[in-house]
Write a structure and sequence with these properties.
- With 426 residues, the protein is of the alpha/beta class.
- The protein folds into 2 domains: 198 residues, 3-Layer(bba) Sandwich (FAD/NAD(P)-binding domain); 162 residues, FAD/NAD(P)-binding domain (3-Layer(bba) Sandwich), CATH 3.50.50.
- It has a 6-stranded parallel sheet with strand order 21-9-1-2-5-26.
- The N and C termini lie close together (10 Å).
- The N terminus is likely disordered.
- It binds flavin-adenine dinucleotide.
Length: 426
């Protein structure tokens, strides 16, 4: 495909997209609809299926299957006549205009766009990087979650204790959706057992069920969950968590995570331990890490201007303040004039202005400034096909909101399905 493209078009510029995040998915779709002659497109992505954050928690709860909440980057790239390099970018050499990849040869560029997202910060807490399961990268997180669910299915009687570290929107949504899924698994087991032998079986079951327990503990360093949302939203979610039996540990700063070195003993199946600054300690089977977003180190190391947390500083046109031929969007970008929370909704909104400014840059036309909205509507799924709407001081909870959120998310994913095939994958 690439060779064909080279024969039929004069290649003037090479636009390289790093990361198949939400903004780049939109950019690719728009390049497919409105291609720019003479521009060669390459996507460097470490995955071929990019998770859509809006549906991820409900996927954990089992409401969506894998395909429903993942964007197929291969067909999207084919639609955009874009070559895919399946690899991780690990550095940028600005002297030679090369993106250095983990395993494949470097990729030269004229124009670069970065949409690689963020990962929860772990490095400052001893043991977290080794023993905790970060919510991102999503593929690793989902692999761990799926493994836990299959262990649960194979050993349903085994007590399970999960710790979630981080009480922002991600941690709260994960806690509720994980609990919902574990509850479903337990319900399924009870129904299956119900089909078995009658009286004696029931007695045995009751004995077993007494031991059946899955606990979820949510650790948060602040006094209140979900900073950035209004008081009513915070309070309501706290009530929901408590009413569902999720154990909240507020004002608890996790300062270390350890693996317990002992022989596996069915009496003590837990094998990790959490230590808090207050002296609180908890043994648990799995620790999920959903703390504040952090940026990949190689961004700053490459020489790009970055904020104090390592995110690429961009102007109102999503252009790097230090390197005019670099654009960035989504979590990895820090708009210097419009700081915003790291949320998928902003990455999605930046897709169109990013596309337009990449095209304008290539056509040597003036760039168009863009200001993200000050407030946004957050729809927080509570794991039971209900959702809470949060915007400014507004809060509303309803089952209808879940169906609305479901409709919005499916509409978004619909944009990337059933695309004509025309491209190339390396
Ligand atoms: C548990 C959890 C739940 C969340 N729920 C919501 C929600 O309901 N709504 C919401 O708005 N936000 C939610 N968020 C936040 C949301 O996930 C992010 O804000 C959003 O995904 C950012 O999109 P992005 O385009 O910046 O990057 P991402 O969606 O993270 O995409 C980045 C892509 O780049 C790839 N990549 C990364 N590094 C490299 C590299 N070096 N080389 C090549 N490819 C690379 C990744 O594999 C990924 O496919 C949640 C976050 C978490 C942790």
């Amino acid at each position: 495909m690439l060779e064909h493209f080279e024969r039929t078009s004069v290649i003037v510029k090479h636009l390289v997209l790093i990361g198949g995040g939400h903004s780049h998915a939109i950019v690719l779709k728009m390049f497919g609809i409105k291609p720019l002659p003479g521009v060669r497109l390459t996507l460097i992505s470490d995955v071929l299926h990019a998770p859509y954050s809006g549906m991820l928690p409900a996927h954990v709860a089992g409401f969506y299957n894998y395909d429903e909440c993942h964007i197929d980057l291969r067909s999207l790239a084919e639609f955009a006549r874009c070559q895919i390099v399946v690899d991780r970018a690990i550095a940028i050499d600005f002297n030679k205009n090369l993106v250095i990849c983990q395993t494949r040869p470097p990729v030269n560029f004229d124009l670069l766009s970065v949409d690689i997202g963020s990962t929860p910060a772990t490095l400052s807490v001893p043991g977290a990087a080794e023993y905790a399961i970060a919510a991102k990268p999503v593929p690793e997180f989902l692999a761990s979650w799926n493994q836990l669910i299959s262990e649960r299915q194979n050993h349903p009687q085994k007590p399970l204790r999960i710790a979630i570290v981080g009480g922002g929107a991600g941690g709260v949504e994960l806690a509720l959706n994980m609990q919902s899924r574990l509850g479903k698994e337990e319900g399924r087991r009870k129904r299956e057992e119900g089909r078995g032998k009658k009286e004696e079986g029931r007695r045995k079951r009751e004995e077993k069920l007494e031991n059946l327990s899955s606990e979820i503990h949510l650790f948060h360093s602040g006094a209140e969950l979900m900073q950035g949302h209004n008081q009513r939203v915070r309070q309501r979610l706290q009530e929901i968590l408590i009413s569902r039996g999720i154990q909240l540990h507020l004002k608890e700063k996790v300062c270390a995570v350890k693996k317990i070195e002992r022989e596996t003993n069915p009496q003590f199946p837990t094998d990790h331990q959490i230590f808090c600054k207050s002296g609180l300690e908890l043994e648990c089977d799995r620790i999920f890490w959903v703390t504040q977003a952090s940026a990949a180190n190689w961004i700053r190391e490459s020489g790009l201007a970055a904020d104090s947390n390592g995110f690429i500083q961009v102007n109102d046109c999503l252009q790097s303040v230090s390197h005019p031929n670099v654009f960035a969007a989504g979590d990895i970008a820090a708009m210097v004039n419009h700081p915003r929370p790291k949320a998928g909704v902003f990455a999605v909104r930046q897709g169109k202005p990013l596309f337009e400014n990449l095209q304008h840059f290539l056509l040597e036309k003036p760039l168009k400034p863009f200001a993200p909205q000050e407030q946004y509507l957050g729809l927080i799924g509570t794991g039971n096909k209900r959702a809470i709407a949060s915007r400014g001081n507004f809060m509303w909870e309803s089952r209808l909101l879940w169906y609305w959120k479901d409709w919005i998310d499916r509409q978004f994913m619909q944009k990337f399905s059933n695309l004509p095939k025309t491209g190339d994958t390396q």
